[in-house]
Amino acid sequence: MNEHPNPTRRAVLRGLGAAALCASPAAWSQTGTDPKWRLLVNEAVTADLSISMLAVRYRSLADYVGTQIHKQQGYVDAVIDIRRFVQQALSEQKPLVVFGKSVNQLSKLVRDHGYQPLVRRPEPYKAAFIVPKGSPIQEFAQLGGRKLLLPDEFSATTAVAKAEVRRRNIREPYMSHTRFQDNVASQVANGMAEAGVVNPTIAKKWQEAGGKIIGETQPVVNWSVLASPKAPAELVARLTDSLLALNSQPAGVLADIGVKQWARADRQDYLALLEYTGE
Fold it and tell me: Comparing C-alpha atoms, which of 47, 55, 67, 104 is closest to residue 224?
């Protein structure tokens, strides 16, 4: 996940990054007359990716969406920090389309700020509580009072983990945070925490390497695409249908962003997540 590109690849990415930065919001007129639209992207805390790498990854999605809205040119606004991602979504000039993995933050955009759900990953999101092989912690109830390591405080993983601790009436563990999901696993493996909470991808790797999973959170809505509060109903319907149409096309756009297929999103799923997390 934290792959370090070779010098040649770094040079290519620097060039692509420069192009992406030229397409940043600051580069365009703020008069509201600019025909270009914005795809705001946040991959949460799965890896320490650069903005340029994210911009390249989501270029094909932006190009595809552009063909569905009268071929207008769009640009990818990739944001790594979750808090800044939310700030960008709430700015006066809102992005037309948002893709995000921090589904608790997406849910608040839907509930509180009028963002309109388009599509989501069909499989639900569940965070896993992990401990090392041979740990004396054998079941979830034994987490009470233990050192529990979580990723970024604003991440969905952290939100649902805290919700599950409350739901099971476990005496609150001593919680601390590190920014990225894979850092959680490495620090638990090195004995810096007694247990940790990670996403399904990291949990699977952890289990395959001999580690233990002692519990999971309740399932909630997964990665999603939202439309601006200002998007008219006709455009929302067209974008939804266009994104769902990717399911029947050869792997390309979806493979680029790590999604197998889309399902139609329902506003109620986002409200249910926030009821669970208490946010």
Answer: 104
CA-to-CA separations, 194 to 53, 106, 145, 183, 186, in angstroms, rounded: 33, 30, 10, 14, 12
pLDDT digits (tens, 9 = 90+) for 37-96: 999 999 876 655 678 888 899 999 999 999 988 767 888 999 988 999 999 999 999 999
Q: Where are the domains of the chain?
A: 7-123+221-277, 128-216
Residue 48 has φ and ψ, to the nearest 5°, of -90, 70
115 in Cβ contact with 98 (< 8 Å)? yes
d(CA 223, CA 118): 11
Asked whether this chain's domains 7-123+221-277 and 128-216 adopt the same fold, the reply is yes
Q: What is the pLDDT of residues 176-201, one digit of tens each?
A: 999 888 899 999 999 999 999 999 99
Tokens standing for 180?
Answer: 């990225």
> Can you tell me the distance from the alpha carbon of 256 to that of 262, in angstroms, rounded to the nearest whole number?
14
Give the architecture (CATH level 2) of 128-216: 3-Layer(aba) Sandwich (3.40)
Percent of the chain having pLDDT more than 70? Answer: 85
Report H helices in the chain.
7-22, 51-57, 59-68, 82-89, 103-113, 156-167, 181-189, 200-208, 233-245, 253-256, 267-277
pTM value is 0.83
Rounded to whole angstroms, the Cα distance separating 215 from 198 reads 11
